[in-house]
Specification:
This protein is α/β, with parallel strands linked by helices and 523 residues long. The chain contains 13 helices and 23 strands. The protein has 2 domains: 397 residues, TIM Barrel (Alpha-Beta Barrel), CATH 3.20.20.80; 102 residues, Sandwich (Jelly Rolls).
Length: 523
């Protein structure tokens, strides 16, 4: 019997139909299922909380479902989180739910001494079922997140599943001879046995659990075929092999969803560049045009194209878009920390919502008390809150980590400490900072605005000039290699705000521009 629950998102109560595992309702016709998929895909859910499932290894006094929930889930009841995407993938073929196609990951060696999986299975449940039940009891949706080629086991022998140890020919390399891209424990999706196990595990979850959807996480980690791992790009045959797998998953999801009387949604964390995706073996354009997916979650550790490009393509095929606000990974830890603030997350959310996003996914944030869970899911609620806007939040570094020449697919600004710009005497360089809101929209508050510009070394007095939207800024405050300028609020505009740095004609040497951001602060 189905239960009708309510979920508060952006001030609204949104009904969610949830049901017990194995519940048999009147079978949906193809037309009914198609309509239900579309309605469910665009159901307001605010934020999707991606939980990597490491809560299963937490040290607890007594292993119970409540103990697992206390680690990362309890406390989410009063947030704007409408769905949890819960990963049980420790590595490919090692899952911390009660898998049938291969043994679950039960190791309690080394860092996994607290692994709750075996004890919960003995109690008649498992981590995925615990989260699924909690979500439905609390009016949220539950997605199972399948990391398509997670390779955390490459550096941790205790994490390696027996399935991989028994099949070294299916891996991209060895510990002594790793591939050029990806890690040696990556499985090769060009091998039928790999694709079969992936399908069997996904189908098993859809058939035996009450999840509302399955998230296919292609960002962990995006090396799927041997040609790519060896330094080239995936082939047409590779892309066809992966697309065949996705079609099989879609077909199984529709069959099981029709049988149980409610759809199983398919979402995918994917690179937001069609070209980059194709190079690593993902024919994302075909997946979208055939509507094999219901929700696209673009971006991960790198953003390639403007959010609006992905929204436009997906919405044309009735697919919802949830940009992923992943954590920054810049090499410079201080610059990384500047991007990990709530002000920066607010700014990223504003830009994504303004581009037409249907919601947002939050990745690698696990603290229930973090204010982002109560702020980012409601675009109207972000008006009048302090924000920090960067030229780029993520930078280009990770684009080349998994693909030779990967950064060539980036179509948005990349200026940051990982990709500085050298400016010779007498020359200038411009970079935009997107602010996709009218900072005076509140109507009652006049924000203070400041522009911070970082150089490799602090320029001598008179060596550089800095302007914003054509207005030269003066009298900066210096802090190490940062110059901070007060900005008249009236020159800040909705859209791109152009920062121009000019190296004086008579300067002794070039200057290296490393980073820039705008702070918008309300009294």
């Amino acid at each position: 019997m189905n239960v009708l629950a309510g979920m508060a998102v952006a001030g609204m109560m949104v009904p969610i139909v949830i049901g017990a595992v194995g519940a048999e309702e009147a079978r949906l016709s193809d037309t009914e299922l198609d309509r239900a998929r579309r309605e469910a895909a665009f159901r307001p859910r605010g934020l999707i909380y991606n939980n990597d499932g490491d809560d299963v290894f937490a040290a607890v006094d007594q292993i119970t479902p409540e103990a697992l929930l206390a680690v990362r889930t309890l406390g989410m009841e009063d947030t704007q989180v409408g769905a949890i995407a819960y990963s049980t993938t420790r590595s490919f073929a090692g899952w911390t739910h009660n898998t049938r196609p291969c043994p679950p990951f039960l190791s309690t060696e080394g860092p996994f001494v607290g692994n709750m999986t075996a004890a919960l299975i003995d109690q008649g449940t498992d981590p995925l079922e615990v989260i699924d039940t909690w979500c439905h009891e609390n009016g949220r949706e539950a997605f199972w997140s399948m990391r398509m080629n997670d390779t955390h086991d490459a550096g941790n022998a205790a994490m390696r599943p027996q399935w991989k140890l028994d099949r070294p020919h299916l891996l991209m390399g060895t510990e002594d001879e790793p591939p050029r891209y990806g890690r040696w424990t990556s499985v090769d999706y060009g091998e039928e046995e790999v694709r079969e196990l992936a399908f069997d595990v996904i189908e098993d979850v859809m058939a035996r659990y009450g999840v509302d959807g399955v998230e296919l996480d292609f960002y962990r980690h995006p090396v799927f075929f041997r040609a790519h791992a060896e330094g080239g790009q995936a082939t047409d045959e590779n892309r066809a092999q992966m697309t065949e797998l996705i079609r099989r998953v879609r077909s199984a999801a529709d069959e099981i969803g029709a049988r149980r009387g409610r759809p199983i949604l398919l979402s995918a964390r994917v690179p937001d560049s069609l070209g980059y995706a194709a190079a690593v073996g993902l024919d994302l354009r075909t997946w979208i045009e055939e509507r094999l997916l219901d929700i696209v979650i673009p971006s991960g550790y790198v953003q390639f194209v403007p959010w609006a490009d992905t929204v436009r393509l997906c919405h044309a095929h009735d697919i919802a878009v949830y940009p992923c606000l992943s954590n920054p990974t810049l090499r410079d830890l201080d610059n990384r920390a500047l991007r990990a603030t709530i002000e920066t997350y607010r700014a990223r959310a504003v830009n994504a919502w303004a581009a037409g996003a249907d919601g947002l996914q939050i990745f690698n944030v696990f603290t229930q008390s973090h204010p982002l869970w109560r702020e980012l899911g409601d675009p109207q609620g972000l008006v009048g809150l302090d924000k920090r806007y960067f030229v780029t939040f993520l930078g280009p570094r990770m684009a080349g980590a998994y693909l030779s020449g990967g950064a060539s697919f980036i179509e948005i600004p990349t200026l940051c400490s990982d990709a500085p710009v050298n400016i010779a005497p007498g020359e200038a360089h411009e970079e935009p900072i997107e602010i996709a809101e009218d900072i005076r929209a509140d109507g009652t508050l006049a924000p203070e605005v400041a522009l911070s510009v970082q150089f490799a070394e602090r320029p001598p007095a008179g060596a550089v000039s800095v302007s914003l939207n054509g207005r030269r800024l003066v009298a900066p405050e210096a802090d190490g290699n940062w110059l901070r300028f007060r900005v008249p609020g009236e020159i800040v505009r909705e859209g791109d705000n152009v920062v121009r740095v000019e190296c004086a004609d008579g300067a002794d040497a070039e200057v290296t521009w490393r980073d820039a951001y705008l702070d918008v602060s309300y009294p």
